[in-house]
Amino acid sequence: MVVAVALTIKVVDVRSKCTKEKKLISKLVSEIKELKERNRELNIEYYQRLRPETVDKNSQELHFLKENEVKYLR
Amino acid sequence: MIKRFLKRLLNRIYNFIKPFKYERLNAFILLSFLLVLIYTYRLLSLALWDGQKWIDLVSEQFQGKIMLSSEKGEIIDRNGAILAASRPVLSFYIRPTEIGDKELFKQLLLGKKEQYEKYCKEKKINCKKLISKISPIFVFKESEIEKAYKKKYTIVKTKSGKILKIPFVWLKKDVAIDRKVAYNAARKLLKVYYNLSGENAFKKRYPDLLGYVKEYVRVYPYAVGSTVVGVSNKFGEGLSGLEYVLQRMGILTGKKTCLSGEKDARGRVYLGNDAYLFVSREKGQNVQITIDGNIQYIFEKVVSKYGKLWHPKFINAVLMNPQTGEIIAAVSWPFYNYMKDEPGRSSEKLLTSRFVTAPYEPGSVMKPFVAAAAINEGLVTKDSVIFCPATLKIGKYVFRNEFHGKDVKERVWEIIEYSDNVGAIKLAQALGKKKLYDYYRAFGFGQKTGVEIPGESPGKLNDWKKWRDVEFATLAFGHHIMVTTLQLAAAYSALVNGGVYVKPKILKAIVDDKGRILKTFQVSKGRRVISEKTSEVMRRILTMVVEEGTGKPTKLENFYVGGKTGTAIKYNRKTGKYDKSRITATFAGAFPMTNPRYVLVVSVDEPKVPKNMLWATKIAVPIFRELAERVLLYERIPPDRKLYRIDENGNFTIIDINRDFLLTNGLQQKK
């Protein structure tokens, strides 16, 4: 009888631990999912702000240098 | 007549089969027999002949499907810049017929402080804190709320024709708010409303007076490459370009989950127990393409500049890596602007990738292929001397050389340099019809390149057996043949890359969200068209076109550039003649020519310019030069013509390199 009660308690204990871990995992999974989504959002925003115009403007001086200027020192 | 015949026929049958004495009994038997026949026919028709049709009809009536589409993957350029992506957005709805105090609800939605202060006073909570939590959803305009109130419900017509009024009206679609924030804000707002209005949420049929649905909208953050990338509609379905192709290939779209169930008379689908299993929506795969977003932008900018200046029908420009067939930039002006235009019928033309869909007569850009074929066949060498008379008569047509009425002797490379039609015809005649046809086919003309862009045209190259002599002659300088800009780029790649035709490609790899490559789209093996030696010779010949010939304005100080101009006069179908005021100007070339890394083809169709400007040298060449310059600068390619050095003492020296690359033994060359 005692063994049975002890075993039941043990099983319940293990199960509750499992449930807690499961909860933790699912919380982590949803957090990862949210972070991924946020990352994608930020990525989109980054490229929206960067835009090739910006790259082009930043390299405008290269345009004026023309290909025959000394930019090719090895 | 027919009636009488039928009557007689029936009488005969009746007289033949009547088994009984009594007429009435016989008539009864005949009628019964006819009925059995009709019944059997109908039975067979229902069960056997048209069985499937009826089964399909029944299943359509009682079975339904719910399709859950997943988030689409991204299209990124070769540097990882996002060209197309799905952005999660929320679409807000309200249920006007369920709202008791519409004015209060409106004020809460608009973020009017008085109402919130009233609630906070009653509950003794910090009002600022509450408002700051709800404020992210204060994105609605009064007019939008009024409009939704006015609409009251959504009317839905079922397949069976019944009209349903659903207490659901969109308030604002595609709002970019974090889902968690929106959830908390909407919940709090409803709590305030129920408290102030005194309504009981549990007694409501639909307590969610304000709610949202998560959707995805397709965005194009880098806003370049519309003629390649294409667009999607509001529902995320690809309409053109790679958006369309990749969706059809099932790469960009995640797995579509299809849940089947039974349908009621109203057309609503009830899912079975199996459908309640966990349904995971898998995101589509990300695709990396060979396009460089920055170069593409440069192309779009330059081409737009000339487009606005000359108002041509179109300007195509394709930049390709001749070794791998990768398309680095491809533009077709006028093109769709992601920042300004909206997808729809009016923008269809702007989204057409004319560099693959619009074939045209290319003109003299085809001459190098004739020369390459003749050299490759061993019929001539680059230095062979060809006699080119001032005029050459074929049938009733007279062709003139480029030397204004003088009979001249030219080397083969000079025929290309001076773009001499008579010389090109002579080379083609030396080859013969079949050989020329075989080489044109091997260079990829008259067939699709197989690039992953929709609507590709194979161009037009008739079978050599159908060529008349005059057609054969004009084929030597690019008439009676239709090619696309991409076909030309692929063919020029084979001409300069060592003689191997490589299939152009635009898909590079499938990558995961972390940028890891899951699958690479392999470079096609390619087929040898000309020998490596012939290809090397062609590189030098094409360079001479730029050094001293029709492509002179493309000459760069630090690089050897090679190419060929093509001014094709367009055929007027109405008059049945070639119209000198309408041309297609092309310049196809490669750079740096000692070891080509880029092949660039520019074609301009029907520019509206003065007559003296109607030459490829004046139309296509300046665009080519500007693009080539920008590409060389952007890619930091070391020059192949000059070497810049600073010695130990700080002295600056410039050394000319690869000087022997140029040809100097011309017969018509200026000494």
Structure description:
The complex is a heterodimer of chains A (74) and B (671). Chain A has helices at residues 2-58, 60-65. Chain A is an all-alpha fold and 74 residues long. Chain A is rod-shaped, with a radius of gyration of 30 Å. Chain B folds into three domains: 2-49, no CATH class; 68-287, Penicillin-binding protein 2a (Domain 2), CATH 3.90.1310; 293-646, DD-peptidase/beta-lactamase superfamily (Beta-lactamase), CATH 3.40.710.10. In chain B, strand 24 and strand 25 form a beta hairpin. Chain B is flat. Chain B contains 20 helices and 25 strands. Chain B starts with a helix and ends in a 15-residue tail after the last strand. Chain B is α+β, with helices and mostly antiparallel strands. The interface between A and B is medium-sized, with 30 and 36 residues.
Instruction: Give the full name of the CATH homologous superfamily of the largest domain in chain B.
Output: DD-peptidase/beta-lactamase superfamily
Beta-strand residue percentage of chain B: 15-25%
State the separation between the terminal residues of chain B, measured CA to CA. Answer: 100 Å
Shape of chain A: rod-shaped
Shape of chain B: flat
Helix-strand topology string of chain A: HH
Q: Tally the helices of chain B: what do you get?
A: 20
Helix content of chain A: over 70%
CATH topology group of the largest domain in chain B = Beta-lactamase
**Alpha-carbon distance between the two ends of chain A:** 87 Å
Report the uncertain regions of chain B.
273-280
CATH level-1 class of the largest domain in chain B: Alpha Beta
Radius of gyration over C-alpha positions of chain B, nearest whole angstrom = 36 Å
